């Protein structure tokens, strides 16, 4: 798609602005965005490209992740609730639980920044998470197995191996 | 509209009963956990119909009249409340300002002693909040997680193997847990150590706020300390971390109080007595001043300079002197000056002369 400003270069910045339910789409190239400064023409009241970028940058680390982020911004919207990545980055709120799935590739840097971590290690719902509990147990036992092999405790290792197999079979059957 | 029993008295029964360790410094402990239901957009995007569906799924869990282990619950829908009642519930920390301002189909389930508050359609579909007097974060967590389990028997939560409990705001994902303690730290403020300590607190994944949460100012030397991280740490780690930091702050505050008493007993006695005098006789009192003077009196009681009032009365006055409560007690829609006048009257009647 060509830039809607210069009509020459490939548009690399795509975003949607929604005001009172009215959707306006923008497709511009980076140099036009830069040249025009902060304001995108044709948007009453002005729209700060800076705020859009900073919104994205805010969520993303430096370097490679930036381009990954704009790629997400171009293409990704949550299929369940319709929220786009740029809306998300501006609002700082997910629209539904599926957003986590659709924006997944952009989330690790964000979570690392906010929490210093990307993986949940806490409570698991009892009823819905029974499988997850077993899977976590298997993971832990595998680590233990590795240690017992290193320490040449082969009897313990064999026991662990059998236990892991049993649990894996149980999960597969469910 | 019917009058709401939860807004009739300033101090919740759970606070009145007192208890909890270190209550001379830690006023209360609170745990909140955020949960969402599967396949329904978060409240930010949910339609009114979807919000009602959330309500229908969640309310029967504690909706029956029969008493549970945690008391019997009353469902209060925000649309059925008068503005003043909403304000008072916020001042008592039973609901959040965003449940009042931003919620569609918002509701709260409260038990009799008001130690459990279950908010529905706040920023997340479900927010379970448990409050305890004094330093009892562990106890608050145990109760909250037990209530969470009861909900989970009936409803399906939005949960992800990798990210944990999915929440509307990325800052709550994972455990959805926010544990906090409200602390009275006058000696650390007076000895100018507070900023150093609070910035250290920020470096270990905790955050400090005013008593009414995000964006609110710390008035009357009361600070709310809570965990910031919810992902990558287990609930137990989060609680342990908060507890150990709070213990250290308690220690620092205690030392600072001892030093104050040892180095400047006369000055501190004078300050406490002056504040007592002002609250007992003033005709007009702004909230900020009354909060500061109440803090002085609380310190005076803790240090043995004053014989009363009791901690329970001090806690009650902290709530009663808030704008919503004053209007509730003395009549709707007051000007600031009227409020300052009634605040002074209330304090005079409680602490000093009866005129």
UniProtKB/TrEMBL annotation, chain A:
Highest rank taxon of the organism: Bacteria
Residue span, UVR domain: 135-170
GO function terms (MF aspect): cadmium ion binding; cobalt ion binding; copper ion binding; zinc ion binding
Any GO BP annotation: stress response to copper ion
One of the Pfam families matching this protein, by short name: UVR
InterPro entries according to UniProt: UVR_dom (IPR001943), YacH (IPR025542)
Protein name: UVR domain-containing protein
The organism's taxonomic lineage, starting at the top: Bacteria, Bacillati, Bacillota, Bacilli, Bacillales
TrEMBL record, chain B:
Reaction(s) catalysed by this chain's protein: L-arginyl-[protein] + ATP = N(omega)-phospho-L-arginyl-[protein] + ADP + H(+)
Protein family: Belongs to the ATP:guanido phosphotransferase family.
Domain Phosphagen kinase C-terminal: 25-256
Pfam families, sorted: ATP-gua_Ptrans (PF00217)
GO molecular function, one term: protein arginine kinase activity
Gene, per the UniProt record: mcsB
Organism this protein belongs to: Paenibacillus wynnii
Activity control note: Appears to be allosterically activated by the binding of pArg-containing polypeptides to the pArg-binding pocket localized in the C-terminal domain of McsB.
Function: Catalyzes the specific phosphorylation of arginine residues in proteins.
Any single biological process term in GO: phosphocreatine biosynthetic process
Binding-site residues, ATP: 28-32, 93, 127, 178-182, 209-214
Annotated protein name in UniProt: Protein-arginine kinase
InterPro entries xref list: Arg_Kinase (IPR023660), ATP-guanido_PTrfase (IPR000749), ATP-guanido_PTrfase_AS (IPR022415), ATP-guanido_PTrfase_cat (IPR022414), Gln_synth/guanido_kin_cat_dom (IPR014746)
GO cellular component: a single term: extracellular space
Positions of short motif RDXXRA motif of the pArg binding pocket involved in allosteric regulation: 339-344
Taxonomic path: Bacteria, Bacillati, Bacillota, Bacilli, Bacillales
Entry keyword set: Allosteric enzyme, ATP-binding, Kinase, Nucleotide-binding, Transferase
EC numbers for this chain: 2.7.14.1
The organism's place on the tree of life at top rank: Bacteria
